[in-house]
Amino acid sequence: LNIPPYLISEMVCLLIGIWRYKNLPAGPFRKLVWFLACIVCVEWYGLVAGRWFSGAIGMVFNFSVPLEYIFFVWFITRHISSPIGRRFCHFYLLAFLGFMLLNNLFSKETGFHGIYMKIGILGVLFFCCFYFAEILRKEEVVNPLLSPVFWVCCGLFIFNIGEFVYGFGIAKLASDPKAWVAIFKALNSNLNVVLYSCISVAMIMVSWRK
Amino acid sequence: MAEMILYLSLALLLLGAMVLFFFVMYRIRLNRSIKERKELELRSIQTLLQTKIEIREQTLKDVSLEIHDNIAQVLSLAKLHLSSAQAVDTNQVNTRVSSAKDLLAHAIQDLRDLSKQLTAEQSAYFDLVKSSELLVDQVRKAGAHHVAFTVSGLPVEIPYPKGIILYRIIQELLQNILKHADASSIEVAMGFDDTSVNVLIADNGKGFNVNQVFEGIGLKNIRERSALLGASVEISSLPEKGTKTLVILSLNEVK
After folding, report:
1. Mean pLDDT of the B86-101 span
2. In chain B, which among 32-51 make CB contacts under 8 A with chain A?
3. What residues contact residue A141 under an 8 Å CB cut-off, 6+ apart?
4. Where is pLDDT greater, at A166 or A32?
5. Does the distance separating the beta carbons of B6 and A143 come in below 8 Å?
6. Smallest CA–CA separation between B19 and chain A, in Å?
7. Of A56, A79, B95, B245, which residue is most buried, by most CB within 10 angstroms?
8. Nearest CB partner across the interface for A154, out of B20, B30, B35
9. How far apart are CA A91 and CA A71, in angstroms?
10. Average per-residue pLDDT in chain B?
11. What's the pLDDT band for A113 if we cut at 50, 70, 90?
12. Which chain B residues are Cβ-neighbours of A135 within 8 angstroms?
């Protein structure tokens, strides 16, 4: 069983999270470690079930992928100071959660629903930009490179911008018989490495700062 | 189609990385300008504190001189009159006591003036006109100069701390005249209109060549403080023709 690079990066990130757990401040960063543990479990399940059982794993990802986006948007929300921005974030989270539950309950399609990626990518990109705009507007000396949340947002921004076209063209790609899907998977895997590396840096920074 | 999507993804990725790079660079540049602005603010606060300290020192010096040279002398004289009253006949006793009373009244008035000056300078709402008038009165009392003080237009309240800085400029200019000008006449004119506050201080002293004379600490202070206020200073002088200094403070700067 070949472990793909994205899964290795997720596991390394989780290990860093466990190693620094006691030094992480209570709140979003500690929850991030638990979230990472869930993600790694789901990814392992996807890998194993996909290869050995050739089972329909779409339904698992229909829950895990939107929850992943929801968690990251919630994470950013906790670091947005504007009340309007926070309210908008909460509205987005509730709407996305409600839509996911209803869609999964009533949809007859068992495969992965690409709509979750579209909504998630747009949301994460929007709220990352919102966070960046807040940093830019701050009338005090802020070094973004020393801010752990900035690193998380950078990883999310890069990951989602790389996934943007893929996420929106997923339906067309699925019908493409050529081997492009493999290239996209490789791209996705590399983007995952970037994302989880950024999260690892953020966790190390925040634990040192504490 | 898939090929196009891949290239688009890569292009977007590159664009995203560039956006992040420029974002960080811009923020770092912004940090630098914020730091500079804060330093400037700190410097102006320091100048303001320095100004306040100087004003306080000058006031204490003036008060000390006033007490020593005037009030103490008047009180000593009053004491002398009262002491000598015992040794003289009844008619003269009344005269001496009356003189002593006059002297004591004079001393009380001087103490009141001093108290007013101190109150005006320490008030939260600094009254520039009143304080300047008291300052001019002090110079006038010394008797060495003929001092004219005029106010034209409706005086506007110059909020703290700008009023106190402008007052310090007037004080410094008067000190310069007293120390260096050899003048017999001094004119202080304050003008208020809708747009600005003008302060003209002129003397008929020995003057100087504006282009040749090295600016001492006093003039440098005046320029620095004017810059802090956002006021302009025009100094015109010629040897043996006196000196005129005009300070113009725009009311836009005051608000």
Report:
1. 80
2. 34-35
3. B31, B34, B35
4. A32
5. no
6. 10
7. B245
8. B20
9. 14
10. 83
11. confident
12. 27
Q: What is the three-class DSSP state of B26? A: helix
Structure tokens at B225: 């403080």
Distance CA A90, CA A73 (A): 9
Q: How are beta strands B232-237 and B146-152 bridged, if at all?
A: unpaired
pTM (predicted TM-score): 0.64
B20 Cβ under 8 Å from any chain A Cβ: yes
Give Rg (Cα) of chain A: 17
Q: Can you tell me the distance from the alpha carbon of A193 to that of A203, in angstroms, rounded to the nearest whole number?
A: 15
Q: What is the pLDDT of residues B34-74, one digit of tens each?
A: 999 998 888 888 887 787 787 777 778 777 877 887 788 88
Q: A174 to chain B: nearest residue by CA?
A: B2
Chain B CB within 8 Å of residue A157 CB: yes
Determine, for residues B5 and A145 on separate chains, whether the beta-carbon distance falls below 8 Å. no
Our separate counts of H helices and E strands in chain A read 8, 0
Q: Give, in degrees to the nearest 5, the angle at Cα A147 between A141 and A148.
A: 170
End-to-end Cα separation, chain B, in angstroms = 63
CA torsion, ordered B42, B45, B46, B49, to nearest 10 deg? -160
Q: Assign A189 to helix, strand or coil.
A: helix
pLDDT at A201 (0 to 100) = 93
Q: Is B240 on the interface with A (CB under 8 A)?
A: no
Burial letters for A112-146: b for 16+ Cβ neighbours within 10 Å, e otherwise? bbbbbbebbbbbbbbbbebbbeebeeeeeebebee
Q: Is the pLDDT confidence value at B216 over 70?
A: no
Bigger pLDDT: A173 vs B112 = B112
Closest C-alpha to B6, from A163, A149, A49 = A163
* Contact map slice: A 95-154 vs B, CB within 8 A: 132, 135-136, 139-145, 154
How big is the A-B interface in CB pairs under 8 Å? 69
Considering only the beta carbons, identify the residue of A142, A157, A172 that sits closest to B31.
Answer: A142
Q: Which tokens sit at A178?
A: 């050529």
- pLDDT class of B99 with cuts at 50, 70, 90: confident
Characterize A157-185 residue by residue with b for buried, 16 or more Cβ atoms within 10 angstroms of its Cβ, and e for exposed.
Answer: bbbbbbbbbbbbbbeebeeeeeeeeeebe
Partner-chain contact A161 B16, CB within 8 Å? yes
